[in-house]
Amino acid sequence: MVRLYTKDLNIGYGERLIVKDLTASIPDKQITTIIGANGCGKSTLLKAITRIISHQSGTVILDGENIAKENTKLLAKKMAILPQTPESASGLTVGELVSYGRFPHQTGFGRLTKKDYEVIDWALEVTGTAEFKSRSVDALSGGQRQRVWIAMALAQETEIIFLDEPTTYLDMAHQLEVLELLQKLNREQERTIVMVLHDLNQAARFADYLIALKNGEIVKAGTCEEVITQEVLRDVFHIDALIGRDPRTNKPMCVTYDLVRNAEQEIRQPLLSAAGAL
């Protein structure tokens, strides 16, 4: 089942086009991970789908409706996004930050109701951050802080959660902690998770569906077995990868890799050709 998809999406900044004629579907109640080299349009795509930025042409459809025409508060009840480097006002407690997730559900003077407090406590409990409720967000470790931000997204009570590189700046243990939490939310609560990851093996391990981008276009989309291949990784990342199997999950994994010989020339040649045509 697909509730969310894009059709012929073009996104850019000024005259520079970042994402080009992109048509993609996000499987419902699954974990979708977007991979690709730096600057390929991953974060730009996430921002456009969640309406943080506008797209130049094309459409993003959610539940049969064009999100460009959707009421902002209604849209915030359907999808939440955790940006790459979330920032909160200095001095906020964990409980206060998580309460911000209730904004789309508030009416009148915006006072928190009994239901709001119940949802906040539930989000803290699910993410294992209830013990930090009265603590300042600034006093938490990176992994703890990331779980609190996820709690805020959960408090928003959306069925779809977007995360832009949720493991950035975290050590290996905290990266695994965050990804296992997202997997648990997907499996136990059927939340649709869409995220950008740089680590290919983490993407393969935790994703049900992968979208590989290059220069704002989809090179390959599908299961981990379909996307984590020597051919796709060569095209997307310019690496010669040895693909094996994760002994614990039996999913494909990148065992080792080398730069493709003459990869730099392959990258530069289109630029040189374009310059020569001027």
From TrEMBL:
Domain of life: Bacteria
PROSITE patterns assigned: ABC_TRANSPORTER_1 (PS00211), ABC_TRANSPORTER_2 (PS50893)
Gene3D superfamilies, per the entry: P-loop containing nucleotide triphosphate hydrolases (3.40.50.300)
UniProt KW Calcium keyword: no
Keywords: ATP-binding, Cell membrane, Ion transport, Iron, Iron transport, Membrane, Nucleotide-binding, Transport
Gene Ontology BP term (one): iron ion transport
Pfam family, any one: ABC_tran
Positions of the ABC transporter domain: 4-240
Signal peptide interval: none
Annotated membrane topology: Peripheral membrane protein
Primary localisation category: membrane
SUPFAM superfamilies: P-loop containing nucleoside triphosphate hydrolases
Cellular-component GO terms for this entry: plasma membrane
Subcellular locations according to the entry: Cell membrane
GO molecular function, one term: ATP hydrolysis activity
Cited PANTHER family: IRON(3+)-HYDROXAMATE IMPORT ATP-BINDING PROTEIN FHUC
Full protein name: ABC transporter ATP-binding protein
Species in which this protein is naturally found: Bacillus mesophilum
Highest classification ranks of the organism: Bacteria, Bacillati, Bacillota, Bacilli, Bacillales
